[in-house]
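for ur thesis appendix - HAD family hydrolase. copy paste whatever u need, i formatted it the way the template wanted (i think)
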Amino acid sequence: MIETIVFDVGETITRDDRYWASWADWLDIPRHTLSALVGAVVARGQDNAEALRLVRPGIDVAAEYQARDAAGRGEDLDESDLYDDVRPALTALRRLGIRVVIAGNQTPRAGQLLRSLDLPADLIVTSGEWGVAKPQPTFFERVIEVAQTVPEATLYVGDHPANDVFPAKAAGLRTAHLRRGPWGCLWADDPEVVAQADWRVDSLTQLTGIVGA
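the 3d part is after this line
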C-alpha cells in the first residue's frame, strides 16, 4: 500500500520551456538551437547540463547561475509553468490520505518559488537545499526520511530513468515513470525502464488509481 508519493520537479511538476528559453537568451543563442541540443544529449543519455557545455565548452554552470541572479535574470517560476494535471492530482491524492512530497534536482531559489505557489503538498524541497543531488543514493536516503514511512510504501514519480526510476528503485522505493518531456517520451519504452518501473503513467491523475487499487 502506498502511503507517500514523492514527485520530481522538472518535466514532472513543471514545464521546462521557460527554463531553457532563459538559458538560451542568457547565452545569446537561438532558443531552437539550445532546444535541439537538449534533445541531442537526452538521446545520448547524458545530463541535461551537457547541452550548455556544447554551446560554451568549460562553462561553470553554478557561476553562471550566480551571474544571472546578479544581473536580475535569475530563475523564475509561476502558475503558467505548472502542468495542468498537477493541482488536480495532488489535491486528489491528499484527499485519499496520501502524504505528498515534491523533491527534485533544483536550486534553493527554485524551492522558494515552488513553495510560493501554495501547491497542495506536505513538503517541497530541492537538491540545492539538501546539498545532495540525484542520482546519488544520499538524495534518496533523504527522500526516505521525509516520506515518513517505509521505502516500500513510498512511490517516487519522475520522467528521468537515470535520475528518478533507477536510483529510486535501488533505494527500495516503488517507482512510476512518467511519459512527459524529452526524457519521459524518448525513454518510455526502453526495456530497462519497463523492467524497473512499477508503473508507467501518462498523467499524474492516473496515480489516484494506483493508490486506490
